[in-house]
Design a protein that fits this description.
Among the domains are: 23-122, Serine Threonine Protein Phosphatase 5, Tetratricopeptide repeat, CATH 1.25.40; 259-326, Serine Threonine Protein Phosphatase 5, Tetratricopeptide repeat, CATH 1.25.40.10; 330-406, Tetratricopeptide repeat domain (Serine Threonine Protein Phosphatase 5, Tetratricopeptide repeat), CATH 1.25.40. The radius of gyration is 29 Å and the shape is elongated. It is mainly α and 406 residues long. The longest helix is centred in the N-terminal third of the chain and has 34 residues, at 2-35. The protein is 81% helix and 0% strand. Helix 1 (2-35) packs antiparallel against helix 2 (39-52), helix 7 packs antiparallel against helix 8 and helix 14 runs antiparallel to helix 15 (261-273).
Length: 406
Amino acid sequence: MKKQNILLLFLIIIAISCYRQNAIKFYENGNTKFNLQNYIDAIADYSRAIEIDTNFYEAYCKRGHAKIYIGDLEGAIIDCNKALAINPNYASAYNNRGFAKYLIADYIGAIEDFNKALEINPKLDIAYSNRGLVKINMSNYSGAIIDCNKAIELNPNHITAFNIRGFAKDKLAEFSDALEDYNRAIMIKPKLAEDFDARGLAKNYLGDYEGAIIDCNKAIEINPKYFTAYNNRGLAKTNLKNYSDAIIDFNKAIELNPKLAEAYYNRGCIKIYSGKYSEAITDISKAIEINPNFEAAYNNRGYVKVLLENYLEAIFDFNKAITINPNIVASYYNRSLTKIKLGDYSGAIIDCNKAIKINPNLAEAYSNRGLAKYILYDAKGACIDWSKAQELGCTDAYDFFARYCN
């Protein structure tokens, strides 16, 4: 009897081991398919592994990861929750759940998950770069750079970290440093369209428009449907005053992604330059419809309305831009011009004061404030402002000073 019990126990152990081996086989097959970007079939294999072993937390985690790639973010979070219920110290599950939360714009929840992942595994480089990505979306660019620095320290070939850090540096106007990051990313993997596109945008900021076009061409060669490359190439062509070709690029970007607000905005700006004001308003309004927080679009639509002498609606647009970004200097300046048109000279001075506080070297704001002061019989204050505007290179101020201050 004792021998029979031992034999039965042995057979049970063998059966459990076989089941576990089968589960591992499906899990490994799923990983192979995942690496080939065959996410649907990978999910099927992970599901089979879970059916065999309901406590296979790694399979839940990987299935959740695959679900992110097919857009099933709720399912991804559920799977990560399940993995963590089985193993509360599984850092990868916190990382994957954090990324899913980032994609549904739950930035605080995402940061908490990445923090937890790093608390468990301080060497998980992907959690640092993911947290950096969330910080970019929270406009914490310096924080994003710190996280990417750590990711790169842990993994010197971390392409995503170089890209994120480069983007953060772009936002901080550190364009040369951003360019170096994109160069490093391209050296590591020279066939990623997004890296050439990002480097092209950095070159745009640095005034290397021909170089920007070359990089965008390369991005399009790698991926002919990479819509941001068309948009960024259009920007470079706009800066070269090649407006007709720029319009073609913006049209293509919109064809590939009808929700790309920047392409409508950029096309609208070209129409401003071309004097097609009604068409410009149509394009810029479309950009605002897609992105209601597009401050530059409100500012430029307001500017067009000033050109059309629709001053009250222009004021509304400048107000909206300033509400979104209280430091948008162009909108204070443009609103001051509009207030002068409406006879609100005191209001114009207040707006110029604000513009000068943000940018003490904005010559036009001194010139405009001088004009408002002169109309309000403050000739001395006007001449002081026009003198300062002359120092900063404003040609209109020379004329005002010569006419009214001698």
